[in-house]
Amino acid sequence: MSRPPRGSAATAPRAAIAVTLFASLTLFFGVRAGMAETYTYVGNADSNDISVFKMAESGEMIPLQTAAFKGVDKPGSSTPLAITPDRRVLIAGVRSQPYLAVSFAIDPKTGQLSPVGSGPLADSMANIAVDRSGRFLFSASYGGNKVALNPLPANGVAGEPKQVIPTGLNAHAFLPSPDNRFVFATNLGSDQVLAFAFDAATGTLTPSDPPARKVPEKSGPRHFVFHPNGRFVYLVHELNGDVAAFAYEATSGAWDEIQRITALPEGFTGKEPDKKPWAADIHITPDGRFLYASERRTSTLTAYKVDAASGKLTTIGSVPTEKQPRGFHIDPSGRYLAAVGELSDSMTVYAIDQSSGALAKLKSYPTGKKPNWVEFVTLP
């Protein structure tokens, strides 16, 4: 029987150990160095800029950048933001003349923003959103009582409006359905939600049949969000503080109300003239288990548990937050919520209890002036 080459018996185990050790070190150091990172973007209306933060695993926010709008001098009433589905471009709506959609490239390694250009908006737009294909920009004008559609070329800079559609009073949100077949617009002043069929191939909107769904008078439908499973939609009403849950029928785009619950904290009546409800924003966790709504009059966030089968909500409770919380958002992991205050010029981060959905305050951070919009993105 032939003898193995000298040293081979010892070399093999040593090589295996070295490979294992290298793999372990790579897993600990290399992969951690290349792990996906989460970034936070805050639109600041009065300072005409965007605050950029890197979010640590602990929820800590690390300030990275203040991205200014070049050539924009006059502040608008708010700064709506939207991110393209491929996470390459962030778009900000400028609500002072000339009305613009300002596009920034998102650096895939650092999360920082670089301006790439701007395109025209049809009016002062309270809300902007990108369709699921990333090829069109939807916008809603509160003061102009209209919605619009702009094409989005590959560079993410909006082209001239392709469609501008008159609505009822105070269009406030204009968002696509999960399958991109319909687009819905809230009319806060007319207490209705408009429905449009959307042809993503041609970028064409056509009123649905029926074209509108009425909600209770003087409720003020404002923002809405779809459940991740696509079976439910939740709508917050600015003027009475209600959150309504609807069953969503994807084939026809129909909304069927199944529940109405309040976003007002316990003990708040809202009956005094200067203390009327003033609800603002609404978001759901990526797993669909918890829903949150902001209320500006009381500067609170209200949390709800979502029943997966019925879509109905159970109130968890309310917590105080930044003064006049017009905007907030939930990070892609579903573990943290960040809320900004228009009158506090700062952002507070909360941990979301993964069992109960309750919010626990972690820390507050300064932002620009009059922050009103929050977006998260995880890269790469």
Number of helices: 1
Strands of the biggest beta sheet: in what spatial order?
3-2-1-28
Give the strand tally.
Answer: 28
Protein structure class: mainly beta
Low-confidence stretches: 1-33
Sheet having the most strands? 4 strands, antiparallel
Helix and strand element order: HEEEEEEEEEEEEEEEEEEEEEEEEEEEE
* Amount of helix: under 10%
Query: How far apart, in Å, are the first and last alpha carbons?
Result: 56 Å
Rounded to the nearest angstrom, the radius of gyration is 23 Å
Mean pLDDT: 92
Structure description:
The structure is a single chain. With 380 residues, this protein is mainly beta. 7% of the residues lie in helices and 49% in strands. The chain contains one helix and 28 strands. The chain has one helix spanning 8-33, and strands spanning 37-44, 49-55, 61-68, 81-83, 89-94, 100-106, 113-120, 127-130, 136-141, 146-151, 163-166, 171-176, 182-187, 192-199, 204-214, 221-226, 232-237, 242-249, 254-262, 279-284, 290-295, 300-306, 313-320, 327-330, 336-341, 346-352, 359-366, 371-379. It has a four-stranded antiparallel β-sheet, with no helix packed on it. Strands 4-5-6-7 form a four-stranded antiparallel β-sheet, with no helix packed on it. The radius of gyration is 23 Å and the shape is globular. It starts with 7 loop residues before the first helix and ends with a strand.
